[in-house]
Structures are given as C-alpha cells and as structure tokens.
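Input:
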Amino acid sequence: MKRIILTLTLFLFTLNGFAGEGMWLPFLLQQINETEMRSMGLKITPEDIYSVKEGSLKDAVLIFGGGCTGEVISSQGLVLTNHHCGYGTVNALSSVENDYLTDGFFAKAQNGEIPCPGLSVRFIRNIIPVTDKILDFPASMKEEDKADYIQDRLTVLQEDQESKTNYEVFIRPFFSGNEYYMFLVERFTDVRLVAYPPNGVGKFGGDTDNWAWPRHTGDFGMFRIYADKNNNAADYSPENKPYSPPRHLKVNVGGLQKGDFTMVYGFPGRTSEYLTSDGLNETMNVLDPARIKIREKRLQIMEADMKLSKSNFIKYASKQARVANYYKKWQGELAGLKLNDAVSKKQREEAKFMQWVNQSPERRTKYGRIISDLKAIYESQASDYLQYEYIRECLKASEQIMSASLGIGMLKAMKNGESLDKYPQLLYNQIAGINPETDEKITHALYAMYQDKFGMHEKTNIPQINAVYDASIFRDTSILSNLIHTKDTYKIAKMIQEDPAFETYRFITQENDRIIPMLRKNRGELDALYKNYIQGLREFSSKPLYPDANSTLRLAYGKVEGLDPQDGMSYSYYTTLGGAVRKRNPEVEEFNMPKRLVDLYEGQDFGRYGIDHKGRKDVPVCFLASNHTTGGNSGSPVLNAYGELIGLNFDRIWEGTMSDIYYDINLCRNISVDIRYVLFLVDKFGGATWIVDEMDLVGRHVDSGIIGEAGDIPNKLIKKRKKRRRY
Ligand code: ARG
Ligand code: GLU
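Output:
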C-alpha cells in the first residue's frame, strides 16, 4: 500500500512539476515551488531566499548598471558580475595607453580601485502587491476608459510612495496586466572597478563561441560599492568607504556534481512565453530575418575597421559586442523554433485551449475570439512593424546623424533665451566614440538597405549622406563651438535647420512619428487581448503559470546537467582549463589566450581550485544547468541547495536560445562560469589574493560533507555551515 501511495505521489508530482521551466516570483515560492524545490534538493527555506526583513539572499542580489545582475560576495561590498556586463564601463575607462580590455586590470589593494562614472547598482528593498489599487475600476467605467485610469493610478501610487521614502519606486505589470507589483529600490552610485580579466580570458571564444557549448569563457568582473561614513548611498567621494551590506553570499569552492540542485537569482529582462502562434510567425518570418540581415552588414564594416588601428578597436569594441550578441542570438532562436516546429506546437496548445473554451458558453463569451482577434492584429501591423525595425536598425545606426538630435535642444534653448555653452561638450560625448570613416560606411550601407525596402528619399540618399560627413556642423566640436561663439541666434538657427545631419535626423523622427501611433494603438489592443488570454490560460492550466520576465527579481531553479542536443551527440556538463588551452590560437584574436594563463596551466599549480579530470589535474571552467534564464540574467549568482555561490550565469546554449518564446527542458541549458575558475583567475592569474581573502569561503560539496579538492583552504577561511533545520 505504502508503495502505491508513494508511486502515486511521485506521479502526481511529476504532473505538477515544472522541471527547470519558469522564472518565479521570489515571494511566492512557499505557495508554488517549495515542495518541488525541496524534492530536488533545496536545503534552506523560502524565507531565507526572500524576505522583507533584512538579511535574506535577496539583499545580496542587485541590478548591475542598466540591465545585468550582480551579487555581493563580501562584507565589504565586493560585487561579482559578468565581464560582458562591465564591458561598456571598462571600455570607457580604457585608452590606447591603459587598455584594460586587452590587458585586464587587477587592483593591487583597495585604494587602487578605479571609480566608474555613470555606473550604478540597485537593490530591491521591498516588493508590494498593488493590483487592488490599480485595477479598482468604478463599476460604471467603460472598457475604453480603463487604460487611462490605470495610467493615472500608476502615477498617483508611485508619486505617493516616493513622497514617503528615500527609495526609488517603480511599478510593473505582471501576467500582461492581470497583476501589479511595486518595487522599492535603493541605488548606489559610487561603484569602482576591482578586477577585470583581459579579453583573452573574459571574452575568450568571442562571437564564435557566444551562445554555444562547449564554452571556455571566464566571463566575470569584480566591482565594489562605496557608501558614505554612515553606510548610506552617496555619490563618488574619496572619503567614501566600502559598503557594508545586510547580506553577502558565501562562496562555495567544494565543487559541483551532475544532478546538484541549483538556483539562479536575478533580473531576467524580457520573455514572451505566452505568445500565440501568429505572434510567433511574426517573429520568425518578419522580424528576426530582417534584424539578422541588417546587423550582418553593420558588423562586417565595423569588424573590418576595428582591425585597422588600436584606437578604432577601442572605439568599437563595446558596440561590436552588443550588435553581434543579438545578431547571433536571433539566428539561434530562429533555427531552434524552425527545427522544433514551435508554430505547430503552439497551434496544438491553442487548439486544446479553444476546446476548453468551447466547453462552456460563459468561457466562450470571455475567451472565444481572443486567438483570432490577435491574429488579425498581427496581420494588420506586419508592414508597419517591419518599417519600425528598419528605422531602428538601419537609420538609427548612423551615430553621426543621430548626434544631430542635439539641434532640437539647441533650438529650444535659443527660444527660451538659454545659453548654448554646454552643447560642444554634449556633442563631444556623442561623437568621441566614432571613427567618421567607419560611421560613414555604415550609414551608406544601411541607408541603402532601408531605401531598397521602403523607397528612395532625398533625405536618405547618397548625396545627402556625403553632405553629412563633409559639411555637418555636428561633425566637429570646434565647428559647433565657433558657431555658438558668434552668438548670432538667427544664424545658428538657420545653420541647424539647414544642416544635412539635422535634416536627416528630422526625417527619421517624422517617419517614426507616423508609424508609432499605429503601433501603439495595436500594442494597446494586443495588451488588452493578452491580458484576457493569460487570464484564460491561468484558469485552463492545471498548474500555476509564471509571469513573463519584465526586468524584476526572479528565481529559476534546476540542476547541474548536460544535454543530448542531437541523436548520437552528448554535451557533458563541464569544461576545463585544459580544454581552453587546447582551443587557444594566437593567430585568431578571439582565441588568443594570454600566455601567462597557458603557463599556469602547464605548471599545474591550481591550489584549492583544482580537480582531477581524466587522470590529470585541471581547473573547471564553465558548467551547464537547467535553469530558465534570459538576457538580464547575465551576472546572476548560481546558488547551491544552501544558497551558497557556486557559479556565475552568463549565457545559454545554441539549441535552446528560443527559450524566450518556447521553453523545452530537453534543449534549454544556461551556461555559467564555475566559481572556482573565477577565484583561480583572481588569485593565481591576477595575483590578487587579497580579494579572495575577503570572501567567506565554504569548502565542502553539498552532499559529501567532506572537504574535497578545496582541502587546502586555510582554516580561518572556512566558515562552518550553520546547522539547518531538518525537514
Ligand atoms: N550571449 C551572452 C549574453 O547575451 C554573452 C554576450 C557577450 N559576448 C559577446 N560576444 N557579445 O549577454
Ligand atoms: N548574456 C545574457 C545577458 O546579457 C544572458 C544570456 C541569456 O540571454 O540567457 O543577460
């Protein structure tokens, strides 16, 4: 009997399990996920992971810069994130003399850390459900007035909260607007660079290996948060002190094994898991192919020019990485969706949903037309949407033309009798990072692509573009500065109005203004339909659904595991430094690993970070796990069953890049850097042992309880794991 019950529970469990899929709300784990997480190995409580009370794991996780995740890994505000998340910042700190991208940077001591103007990190201090306060429509309210009502409520609630706290406040819709949550956010703006490996390590494998397995990238960087003498957030000051956070992560160097429970805690940006088959068609047939084609051209030009000089390389390094990243991602997404026939699968799911809908007249009234209404909108917006993408990807790719947007501000300033003194500096900020020849080539090529598709126009044709680079007042700060010094407002206004870059810039905004209202109207209708659709799906589904990613704090969980991507092919779950060394190729920039790292490998001095691998000593580099992640999860901590740091998330595998739209546990894996590789690089490669010394290291593997390969950690560094409650 006992056996039957056991089998039955297991069976029920698999039915209700999520098996790696989902980016869950951290404050609902107890209701939705705890049972499954525990059965997979979780050893701490949902309260340990997320609590409004200070000191849960959430207080160690942060938004890094504009859209990555980072985590605090010492009591002195040390932050770990990805190399590619710090790339723009470090690119801006670099010069031909101090090229931190090519040479790396490891501070010798805390006072050698480099301030990073413009960089900030943000912690989520509280999350408050506010659905009732937003969707509390008066009974008499007409459907068409609801969107405005919501907008008003959002503003009022936000302003009200802001007046009551020092935190930043934002409110986001979840489940397409069926729920709303408010976030209280603490921002720190004095953030400094601590450790950053050279491209040959942190970007090893480059675009060739990006979005792919096997992977050997040491994709990490370290920063430090500084605060004022009362430990409060403050702008940069030499007097500031390292921030003492309410919680930092312990770092586990005891290693990982296949099947180990893992969690990824971070800020996934955007997914569309509930897109209908027609929405999917739009992405696959209209948007992705166009974006790929345009970026291919842009990259060809950029990459050829980056090879011409070191200064060009530094100007374009970060831009190239950004453009190349999604260029490749869309190809993986497209290939995966096609190969797996995602459209038919979605159609079958929709058919099941409709079957359920048709079972009752009430459901039929509520949900009967959603899918066909959505289809109609997708069809009607296809060409506008495509043009919008072309404007974004082609016309706005010209940095010189976009810099003429300053003309708008100048005209306004003159009308208001304000000074124009700041404009030469603003222009400098926009154009210092371009090489005019490269920008001109890109502009010619991409504007031609736009004209091919949407017709010739005198503001985008060849003579106009030539004039931009030969004669625009925005091509040189001293030209602009001289003009401003004339103080002749009539002349300045005329020069701006007749400037070729300004004219083309105006054309771009006009085109956008023409299309955007239509897209916005469609977007409003799409939103309303999706809100309804997701409500229907939640009633229909036998298990709780997770909301699409929206750059808010989420927890994904899964386990360390490889994958069989194709018949007869198998991915093991980790890679090693030995493998990286064998991939090395000094002839090819992407695979040009620093000789120092090769020497370290040959010297086999791996200390506490080494493992036995195929009869040889080695260092683990990257590993695969089945956590559901997306862009924005870069830099997220990968935690073990105790909530200790074992890795740093940075990518997904090629076969599963479609997971933003269609998740399949048999194809999707996230890629992380093994924390032992990070420490090995800081300690042995960067010679910055002092940084490792400030961390709380834990030296045992989750299951074995013995101090394994980490045996030579000095005792003072090993913190005993607190006895946990048993379940
Ligand atoms: N694919 C990863 C992500 O989406 C890493 C990108 C950085 N590397 C690059 N070659 N651009 O961010
Ligand atoms: N590299 C991505 C990022 O910047 C994470 C990889 C992914 O999209 O899964 O967030």
